[in-house]
Structure formats: C-alpha cells, structure tokens
Amino acid sequence: MQVNLHEPWYIGPVQIPSRLVLAPMAGVSVQAFRRQGRRFGAGLVCSEMVSCAGLHHGNERTLGYLRIASDERPLAVQIFGSEPSVMGEAARMVEDAGADIVDINFGCPVKKVTKTGAGATLLEDGDRACRIVEAVSSAVDVPVSVKMRRGLDNGSRQCLDLGPRLVDAGAASLTLHPRSAKQMYTGQADHSLTAELVSLVHVPVVASGDIDSRSRAQSVLATTGAAAVMVGRAAQGNPWALRKILDGDAAEPSREEVVAELILFMRETARELGDRATPFLKKFYGWYLGRGRFPRAFKAELTQLATIADVEARLFAAAPGARFVLARLEEELPRGDEVLLDLPISIYGGG
Ligand SMILES: Cc1cc2nc3c(=O)[nH]c(=O)nc-3n(C[C@H](O)[C@H](O)[C@H](O)COP(=O)(O)O)c2cc1C
After folding, report:
1. How many angstroms from the chain centroid is the CA of residue 62?
2. Which of 44, 75, 320, 322 qualifies as a cystine partner to 21, CB 3.0-4.6 A?
3. Cα(320) to centroid of ligand 1, in Å?
4. φ, ψ for residue 347 (rounded to 5)?
5. Strand ranges (E), 154-298
6. Which of 112, 177, 186, 238 to mutate to test the pocket of ligand 1 (most atoms within 8 A of CB)?
7. How does pLDDT run across 35-53, given as a tens digit for each residue?
C-alpha cells in the first residue's frame, strides 16, 4: 500500500502540510537547517532542545534559540527542564517568540541533562512529567507536544504507560523514538511500540528513529498508523534525502548543487552564530560532501581552513558552476524575512 506523504495533518489547530517532520537535533538544528528542511518538503521543523533554566535566567545564548523566521513555520520549539513552573514560563517565552507549537523533551539520554531530572529521566517520574505537561499547556494557547523515548532501560515499555497520561495532561501530539535512553543510538528503533502507542491515544503520533528511505517511511506509516515520520540523521547535510523520502525523487544532486546548498547553509549559519559558526560548520563539510564525488582529502582539507571565506573560495574552485546555482537559490529565497528575535544560539544534547 502506498501512503501519501503529502497529505496534511494537524497538531491541535496547526496544519502540517506533509507527513514528514525534521527532527530536533542539538548542535545541528540551526535556523538554516530548519529553513532548508522546509524548502525540501518537511511539513514541520523543530528547534533543538532549549534549556528552560537558560530562558528563565535570560542567558543570551539560550535566548538565541528563539530566533524564528517566517519561512520556517510551522515550527516547534523544544524545551527541556524539570520544574513545572519554570517550564511554563519558558513555554510562554517560546510562544511569544512566534513558535506554532511548544515541544517538551522527555527523551534526552545525555547525562548532563538527565542528572538534573530533565529529559529521559522524566519517563520514570510520570507524576512530575504530567505536572510539567499541565503547567506548559495551561501557560500557552499554542498546542503542546511531547517527544520521548521508550523508557530508560533496554526493553522498557514505559512510554505506553506514560503516553496516555501525558495526553490527559494536555499533550496534543506525541513523538516516540522507540529506543531506550541506555541504548543511546545503538540497536534499532522498535516501531512495534509506536503502533501500540498509536492504538492507545487519540492524538497524532510521530514515529522517530531510523527513517532513512522512502520504503522505510512508507512501511512505518502503514504498519504503525502514525500521523507522520520524523527524519533526523539521514537529513544531516543531506536535504535531498527529504525529497527522496517524500516523492521518491531518486536523482542525485550534482556537484554544483551540493556546493551551492552547502555555501548557502554556511552563509546563513555565519549570520546566525557569528564567530561560533567556524567550528560549528566543520562537521557539515563531510556530511554534505558525501555526495558529488569529492575525494576524502578534499573534505579533510576544508576542516583545516581558518575561515568560512576560505572554505567558500575552495568550494567554488572545486565547482565553479555552483556560483550560478547559488545565485538562483538566493534569488528564490523569501524576501523581507521577519526574524522575530535577533540573537545567537548554543551546544549539545539529544533525545
Ligand atoms: C546529534 C543529535 C542531536 C539530537 N538532539 C535532540 C534534541 O535536542 N531533542 C530531541 O528531542 N532529540 C534529539 N535527537 C534525537 C533525534 O531527534 C531523533 O529522535 C533520533 O536521532 C532518531 O532519529 P533518526 O534515526 O532519524 O536520527 C538528537 C539526535 C542526534 C543524532
């Protein structure tokens, strides 16, 4: 059975124009990544997780996560924390910044986060998790969604117990990454749990984990009844994967297209992160240049260059025709973009 990924669906009153969601990824999901994801067909994009304590203290870097541009929308901003009242306050700031959805992280397995009682730890503290969802959903008018893992330990089915309770507490959608926190990213996502969760709740469920091809997306949608699939690692430096999953468009991008998308991404990220863009971008070179038949030595060379301008010059030298592709891309980008908050962003996490 072919599933139509272009079918719109809803989280509360927010219409999501396709059944493909771009995953929140700490250290990856900058504004340039999200805008690109929307351009390549993601119906919904999400910020990386934002610390509610950081928002509460007015930390400048944390506030930078609340930069939202009109062409990213619909957009969810994800928050993490363990204090219901502070999470409620953070949710209000997220709503004021222009997010269409507030997403709550109950999935992050990273120690720095779990030791504060936030992220995946909350899967084992259902009462507190529900209090957080209640506080957040009563603080804002926009819908609230929750992203979670299956549980803390391997084989855990905690998400099936907690999911319906979170919906009763006010969650308008649930995303499940059915690995345990202990697994981190090893093993496989067990989407039979996603199917069970779908059967237990009346809100849309998004399936996250190992969606890296059109056939995988189709089979997970068909076998779980999920409203949408979420794509994370497969889209790192590879927006074409989104198009492939959505439309089955099997054409590989040309070397010029790869370079043009990478340079556009670099320019936007430099505007967003300022000096921090140079180290931030290094991992993207290898990711992007996995397409276009670039030699390994060329990718390594780029990471050694001192400035983004040097990287740009080297890329143009390798693919001169990329200038024309880039000019066309920049021409097509929406004009008069309203950036609601003009501040920078931050570091690492997970879910
Ligand atoms: C580098 C990285 C950072 C991540 N950061 C977040 C995050 O901030 N919030 C979150 O809910 N999930 C985070 N995740 C988990 C992803 O959203 C997704 O659930 C997971 O990678 C499984 O999907 P995939 O197999 O498509 O990558 C992160 C994953 C990666 C690889």
Report:
1. 17
2. 44
3. 35
4. -100, -135
5. 173-180, 205-208, 228-231
6. 177
7. 999 999 999 999 999 999 9
